[in-house]
Amino acid sequence: MVKVAILGFGTVGSGVYEIIKTNTTGLKRKSGSDIEIKYILDIREFDDHPEKHLFTKNYDDILNDEEVKVVIEVMGGLHPAYEFSKAALSAGKHVVTSNKELVATYGTELLNIAKEKGVNYLFEASVAGGIPILRPINQCLAANDIEKVYGILNGTTNFILTKMFKEGADFADALSEAQALGYAERNPEADVEGHDARRKIAILASLASGIFVDYNDVPTEGITKITKNDVAFAAKMNSVIKLVGYAELTGGTVYARVAPMVIPCAHQMSDVSDVFNAVVIHGNFVDDLMFYGRGAGKLPTASAVVADVVDAVKHIERRIRLMWKMPEGNIMVDPTKVPTQYMVRTTNKALVESFAGASVIGELDGEFAFVTCEMTETELFAKLGENDSFIRLLPKA
Amino acid sequence: MVKVAILGFGTVGSGVYEIIKTNTTGLKRKSGSDIEIKYILDIREFDDHPEKHLFTKNYDDILNDEEVKVVIEVMGGLHPAYEFSKAALSAGKHVVTSNKELVATYGTELLNIAKEKGVNYLFEASVAGGIPILRPINQCLAANDIEKVYGILNGTTNFILTKMFKEGADFADALSEAQALGYAERNPEADVEGHDARRKIAILASLASGIFVDYNDVPTEGITKITKNDVAFAAKMNSVIKLVGYAELTGGTVYARVAPMVIPCAHQMSDVSDVFNAVVIHGNFVDDLMFYGRGAGKLPTASAVVADVVDAVKHIERRIRLMWKMPEGNIMVDPTKVPTQYMVRTTNKALVESFAGASVIGELDGEFAFVTCEMTETELFAKLGENDSFIRLLPKA
C-alpha cells in the first residue's frame, strides 16, 4: 500500500482522483501496490465531496505525514507549487507534476534535490498532455543521440490555425470560437503568443540534450499576425501553417525556437488538427518518429500524471535516471545566424527582385507572396520593409 | 561494466554492434554502466572483422561465461533461438530480442522463466521496429485500460499499397518494385499474406490485455487480391486501403484480426506511407494516441534492441514488470460474429439491392462498388456471389 497526496483539486487534480479511483485493479497490477489517496490539498471547500475527509488546507498535514510517499503537484503556477515541491522532495517524498512552468523554471534545482534525497521528480504530463514523450526520450530512445525534437505543442493555437485553414476563418473569429468552446482562456496571451509552447520545447530540449535549456533563451513568435492571405498562400504551396516548438541538438549546442512555420502537406505533422499535439523526434539511428495524441484536457493530462505515479510507486526505493545538468558556458546557438527559408508576403511586388532565387507563390487581393532561399534572419530583415511580413518554413529534414 | 553477447551477426546484429560501438558515451550516461560486447555468435566466418576475436560458433562459450549478463538474440527464426533464449534465461541472464516469431510463439514460457529467475526478457524491437510501442503500452499508459490497439505493422505491404495508391500501380508491379528495392523477400508470402502483421498484433494484444493472445487465433487476410479498381473505389470514398492489425480488448475478451481495411483520409493513419509503420492505442482516459516511425531496417530495429539492453543494464539486479498470463478459457471473440462495414466490388450491379441501406460508390470498367451497413461476415458471405469481392472498413472510433 502506497499513500499519496494530491495538491490542487482543479481540472487535472480531479482527473487524477477519478483515474486512481476507477482503474484501481489495473494500477495495482502495473505498480505492484495498492495506491491510496490520503490527502487532497485545496484552499476551497469541498463539503459535498463523497470523500470530504480527505481534504485539507494545511500543507503541513501532508509534509509531516511519513506515510505519504508520493506528492502529486497539479496546482499550476510557480508559487507556492515551487515551495511545496521543494519541501516534499527535501522530506524524501517522490513528487509527480504536470506543471510546465515550474519544471521549465526550477526543474534543475528540483531534479538535483530529488537526486540528493534518492527520490524521483517526474513530469511527463508537463509536455504534450497525455502523449508519452519524456519517457520515450529518456528511455525508449536510449540507443540514440537525439538530433532534433520539434512539434505542435499547444492545442489552442492548433485549433485556431486549423479553423483558419479548413474554414477560411480569420484569426480573431477563430480565437473567439476557441474561447467559446473553452479551448482558449479569456486572456489567451500565454497560448497565442507562444509562451506555453516555449516552456514545453525548453523541457523537451533539456531532456533530449541532457543540458538545461532556459526557456528565456528560446526566441518566440506567436500566431496573432497570421492573416487569411498567409493561409491562402501556404495552401497554394500545398502547405499548412502550424505553431512549432523546434530544437536542434548538435555537438553540445542547442538551436531552439518557437514560431509559426510553413509545413508541406507531405509532412506527417501537417495533418495534426484541432486541439491535437504531435512531437517529432529525430534520432541518429532510429530516424524520424512521431508521437500523436491529446496534448491537454482533464483525463489525458491526468492519465500522464498517474502513469508517473505508477512509476514512482514501482521505484519507491530507487531512482529513475532522469536528469539534466546546468550548461558550462553558453550552449545556445545564436538564432539570428541560422539560415532558413521564409514565405514573404508583401504589397510591394518589386520586393522579390532583391531575393535571388526566390520562387513566386502568387498574388491575392493586392498582396504578393514568394519563398526565399535559405538566409539568416539578419539578412532577411535587411531586405524587408515595414509592411512586409514573413513566416518561416519548417527546416528541412 | 556490463558484458553482453550478440547471437546472430546479420542485419540487426551488426546494427546492434554498430550502435553500441558508436554511442558509447550516451549509453553509459543512460544505463549507468559501460556496456562491452564480449561475444558474437554466428556460424559464418568473419575473419576480416576488426574484432574477429569476439566471434564464436559455440553457444556454450556464452552460456557458461558468468560475466555475460545480457544475451541479445537477433538470429530470427524459432530454432535454435528458442533453445538459446531459454538456456540463457534459465542461467540467470537477461535476454533482449527482436524475434517476433519467437515472442509470439514461446513468449509466455520465456516470460515465466524470466520471472522465476528474476531476470528480464525484453522484446521492444519485435513489434514496429524502431517505434517505441511495447514500453509505452506497459509503462507510459499505466493509468489507462487499453481498449483498442491497431496499426500498420508491416512496411513491405504498406510500401506496395502506397505505390498502388499514389502511382496507380497494380499489385504485381508494386511487389516487383518492393523486391527490387530489397523491401520484400523473394518469397513475399510472410508479408503479403499478413503473417508478419499477425504475429505483431498478437504480441501487442497480449501486452495490452495482460493475457496471451495466440497468433493462430487471429484471422488473417493478405493484400494479394486488392485490385486497381479497389484502390480507385476507395479513393472515390476519400479513403485509402491499408493492411491493418487490429485488436479490441473489452471485459476480458479480445477481438483481433489482420486484414486490408478502408481508412478515411481524415484518419491520422491514412497518411502513413511507404515503409513507415504506425500504431494507434485507445486508452479509456487518454483517448487516441498514435506512434509513427520506421517499422523495420537495420538501425531503427537495432536502436530498439539497444534501448532494451540499456533497460536490462539499468535493471540488472531487478525485474521490469512485463508480463502476460495464459488465458483461463477462451478469451477470443468469434470474429464471424462481429459486425462491421464492407466495401463490396462486383460486376453484378443488382447485388446492391440485397443490401438495405448500402451507399453506392460508383462504376468503373464494368465494375460496381458500394458500402454496406454494419453486418457480420456470415451475413455478408450469404449475399456475395463467387465473383464479388469485399474489403472491410476500419471499425469506427
Protein described:
The structure is a homodimer of 397-residue chains. Chain A has 397 residues and is of the alpha/beta class. Chain A has three domains: 2-129 and 298-314, NAD(P)-binding Rossmann-like Domain (Rossmann fold, 3-Layer(aba) Sandwich), CATH 3.40.50.720; 134-294 and 329-335, Dihydrodipicolinate Reductase, domain 2; 336-393, Alpha-Beta Plaits, CATH 3.30.70. Chain A has 13 helices and 15 strands. In chain A, the strands form two sheets. In chain A, strands 11-10-7-8-9-15-12-14-13 form a nine-stranded mixed β-sheet. Chain A has a six-stranded parallel β-sheet with strand order 3-2-1-4-5-6, with helices on both faces. The radius of gyration of chain A is 23 Å and the shape is elongated. Chains A and B meet through helix 2, helix 6, strand 11 and helix 12 of A and helix 2, helix 6, strand 11 and helix 12 of B. Strand 11 (287-294) of chain A pairs antiparallel with strand 11 (287-294) of chain B, so a sheet runs across the interface.
